[in-house]
Amino acid sequence: MTDAELVVVGGGPIGLACAIEARLAGMAVIVVEPRDDPIDKACGEGLMPGALAALHRIGVDPPGHRLAGIAYLDGAQRVEHRFAERPGRGVRRTVLHRELGRRAAELGTPIVRGRVAGLTQRRDGVELTLAGGETIDTPWVIAADGLHSPVRRLLGLDGRAQHPVRRRYGLRRHYAVAPWTDLVEVHWSALVEAYVTPVDDRTVGVAVLGPRPLDQEAAIATIPELADRLAGAQPVTDARGAGPLLQRSRSRASGRVLLAGDASGYVDALTGEGMRVGFAQARAAVAAVRAGNTEQYEHAWRTTTRDFRMLTTGLVVAARSPFRPRIVATATARPQLFGAIVERLSR
User: Fold this and answer.
1) Non-local CB neighbours of 109 within 8 Å, separated by 6+ positions
2) Which of 129, 109, 110, 125 shows the shortest CA–CA distance to 257?
3) What is the domain range of residue 47?
4) What's the pLDDT tens digit per position in 39-54?
5) Does 133 map to a domain?
6) Which of 260, 301, 340, 347 is nearest to 85 (CA)?
7) % helix / strand / coil in the chain, to the nearest 5?
8) Would the pTM of this model clear 0.85, i.e. be above it?
9) DSSP β-bridge partners for residue 111
């Protein structure tokens, strides 16, 4: 098979965004993805204003619940910031995937069901070998195949693994209860954070982040205010997990293969703007492919993720330190600083 100017490995939201960007630029593109639709993932499901604007630019407008801002809570302490210019949106991951898939299909994007098992690079292209033995030849590849990217591993671009003691994980579950706020609430307890995101008029998603062993219901029980809100609410999905959250890549490109989204490296979910960053990477990766310049992408990747990496890394360090009990208190004492950080990350 050799009909595509670009092959995108991974048919999740960032992979589909890459394919849509490529089709809008007039490129012939194929997506390779082993899983059936819709693809779900453990995540907070809050699209920040910048992420929603990026989706609108490529013709995608997923239904969901209006998000007016972010609140941090720790017991009786609370600080919130409402987005200054436009709202975000809480969107079920399966709904987001469906809408991106619909747009990609509308633009004529074929999806090959398969898993990449091998990769060979030449000066002028890449040969991908699928698990069933089929091969695909293409001038360029963008790998958006997730946190534990097989393509990143095949390229030898995995970074240093985090020490097991410091690893953090995530669990997400949905509950049948009407949202009580139009904010994403981040509840802090001694060991975990719980992200509460309204995703429609009858459902909230709760994502819990912390070290192993991680039990969602036990974690919620350590946050009395949240436990009271969810008392009697029926879970409508099973708990879905992800992690370890920190993943490093030694480089974002090797030869004619570029890494995008979580495959390119991930710090933590603490600040909640992974989708915004991922959509920006999709746009930059396609632009670099069209220019035939992987150094352009490396520079764009660093620029796009700088705030995310610096602020999230700092917050993760604080969350693991004796300062953790003071995080919400400090934000409450300095609401303008908290608001400025939220605004910077949300755009």
Assistant:
1) 16, 19, 20, 23, 29, 30, 31
2) 125
3) 6-64+91-162+245-323
4) 888 788 999 999 999 9
5) yes
6) 347
7) 35, 25, 35
8) yes
9) 31
